[in-house]
Amino acid sequence: MGAKTILVRGLGIILLLLAVLLIKSKPTIFDGNMNRMLPNQIGSSTGGRQVANKDDNVISSGGGETSIPKEMDKMLGNELPPSKDGRQDISIEGNTAYSADDKPIFAEDTVLPNQNPPRIDVGQEKDTVLPNQNTANKDGGQGKNKDDNSVSSANEKPIISQEKDKALPNQNTANKDERQGKNSNNNTASSANVRPIISKENDKVLPNKNTPNKNEGQENALKSNEQKVLANQNPPQKDGRESKDSGNNNAATSALPTGTSSEKTGAHIFNRKQIYKVGDELLVRIIARDAASRPKTIGGDFFTTMLSSRSPVNASTAGRIVDYGNGTYIARFVLGWPGLVTAAVRLIHSSEAVNILKKSRSHKIRRFFSCGFFDEKMNNTEWTSCTFNPIEKANYSGNVCDFSRPDINVTWYCHRPKSAPCDPPVECRQDRNKSLRVDDLFTEEEKASLLKGDRVEVSANISVIVQKNDKGIEPKSLPQCGPRLPEPASEGYWYNGTWYSLRCRAQRGFDREAAIRCLRNKNIYLQGDSTLRQWYSDLAKTINTVDNPNESPKFLGPTVTTNHSNNINIHFRFHHFPVSGPPTRPMNVFSFAADDIMNIVGGPNVVFVLGLWAHFCAEPVETFRSRLYGIRHAIVYHHSKYPGTKFFVRSSNTRGFVTFSHLRDNSNWYAYQLLLEARDILGDLNVTIIDVWDMSLCQWHEHNVHPHHDVILNHLDMFYSYICPM
């Protein structure tokens, strides 16, 4: 054998030996576990289940399987949400789902996160995001925002933002004045945090609603004393107020046939729990529906709510309502007494009817006045039209007698008489015949929409038992009565004929001696309408004055009644026009409130009370606003000279109705708007607004523009408590 042959054969043997040694060493690339996943790959684990991994954060377990980092309730992109029993390790292979024990789960209609839902009906478009869902992120994530302080799925309880008035994702920015009556243009259905509305037919989900939670878990209650915004909801309108732009009627009156129906609207407890105690809050959610039982997607309905007991005690309170702008409302009650309590909800006006009222007040002259001008030469009185409204003034074609007072922000125009001079008129009255013809400006549908309100209560079977609380509602925890107090969760409650205020430490049951001690050495001026004249009459009787006032309905003042021995003087004067009603009234008895405020001599023993509302309901809201701004200027001027003078505003109250014309001019919605205007314009001054709206709303008497004598006595107890808080 040659040397060359031996070298070739030896080299082959050496290579063979090296190959054997290499095989015996078992390197990783020849391991049987060849399919082990590398970072950012998707492969089969030992158990045969697929797991989708994201980024480079995969952690391998001791057995070679890839496990998912255990971050609390956090899902990676394209992962499945947790199952109902809390397990995360459901996986997908092909079209079959596997549970933790590798048993296939055939969920035919299961929708993966960030996938389009199955088409339930022909009308559903592809790629349409269901209402109340967040839009899927482009990277396939779950849509959780890093800056989002409250994220919850459709089946979770609502998470309330911990920052007041902060708009959450998918919210509209809160209005600065937070008025209730302003309708949102966002017609999105209620959010993921609003419980779905279920029809009575086998839990069928109504259109635009989330699938119901099978466990029917209760949502978290709103925190007291703060109007929190639910996630993904429109911001609440806190006080039922319309927009300053009263001519903005976004909702067309053509929607009347599908307006809010009191028969179809529902209500249920929002914060249900096993035990309620005195001092707790009860929240009731109202879901507005139309006549076809379809949930409304806009707000603006005018509801009232009341919680009451009739045995063994007679007690009641009114609820504070928050409008979320999407057909959902929350009524908040403070439980002030123990026993069985029942909630009632009444639809006063649908949002469609409210729009009619707004349009009527803004664009239709509903009340006309005429005044008499005395002609000395002819020795007779000539009557012409007069108005506060610049719109109607334009109809006078330039023949105008202008009696406006820019210094106190008052407008007053009269059509120039033909023969009499343009001197101030000697007497004025409402032109009832001309005013009644305004009815013709309303369609039959509009009339029906307004009249059907305040007739039928919303269907609600809500009753709870309230247990006693050892401490109850501690009066000591309430502030001392005075101006500019914080807004309470409830104004108070009636209990066996006595009003218990929750705004301040009000005293109750003032007898004659206590009232005289409080009013001793006081000069009290009251200027307002006949509802404030009720105060005057009862004050005069209480202090046993020498000359009792004339209680005739035509009584206008000015008048004063005196208790000489205690140096108490009580003055009353009816406010200046507008004054409704046909009787002719002499103009020399009237004085503008702003003039009186600036002219009186004030001081610590001087009290001035305003009660302007009942005769302003039928006027454009600008008339009332301008009058209040003039009064505001006068109060500021007066306090610059006499800072100790006490000013009060007696708020509006509810009333009943018989005819369409009366409702058209004096709807309770109008009266409530005037209360809100007074708060807005005068609330930041050193002025006390005695809010009797809730007292009237939940009283046990029939609603009347002139409250029952028992109610007036409770008004005066509040009045005394503010004058003499100690």
Structural class by helix and strand composition: alpha+beta
- Let me know the number of strands: 28
Terminal residue distance: 131 Å
Q: Describe the biggest sheet? A: 7 strands, mixed
Helix content: 10-25%
**Sequence stretches where pLDDT stays below 50 over 5 or more residues:** 27-235, 243-257
Q: What proportion strand? A: 15-25%
State the helix count. 13
Pfam families: Neurexophilin (PF06312), NXPE4_C (PF24536)
Family: Belongs to the NXPE family.
Organism: Branchiostoma floridae
Region (Disordered): 43-90, 109-265
Describe this structure as you would to a colleague.
20% of the residues lie in helices and 18% in strands. About 31% of the residues have low confidence. With 726 residues, it is an alpha+beta fold. Strand 3 and strand 4 form a beta hairpin. The radius of gyration is 36 Å and the shape is elongated. This is NXPE family member 3-like isoform X2. Keywords: Signal. Belongs to the NXPE family.
What's the layout of helices and strands?
Elements: H1 3-24, E1 59-60, E2 66-67, E3 91-93, E4 96-98, E5 104-105, E6 266-269, E7 276-277, E8 281-287, E9 302-309, E10 315-318, E11 320-323, E12 328-334, E13 339-349, H2 351-363, E14 369-375, E15 380-387, H3 390-393, E16 400-402, E17 413-415, E18 427-430, H4 432-436, H5 444-451, E19 462-467, E20 492-495, E21 498-501, H6 512-519, E22 523-528, H7 530-542, E23 559-563, E24 568-574, E25 585-586, H8 593-599, E26 606-611, H9 621-641, E27 646-650, H10 660-666, H11 668-682, E28 687-690, H12 693-697, H13 709-723
Parallel strand pairs: 7-19, 22-24, 22-26, 26-27, 27-28
Antiparallel strand pairs: 1-2, 3-4, 4-5, 6-8, 8-12, 9-10, 9-13, 10-20, 11-12, 13-19, 14-15, 14-18, 15-17, 16-17, 18-25, 20-21, 23-24
Helix pairs in contact: 7-13, 8-9, 9-11
Keywords: Signal
Protein name: NXPE family member 3-like isoform X2
Biased composition (Low complexity): 183-193
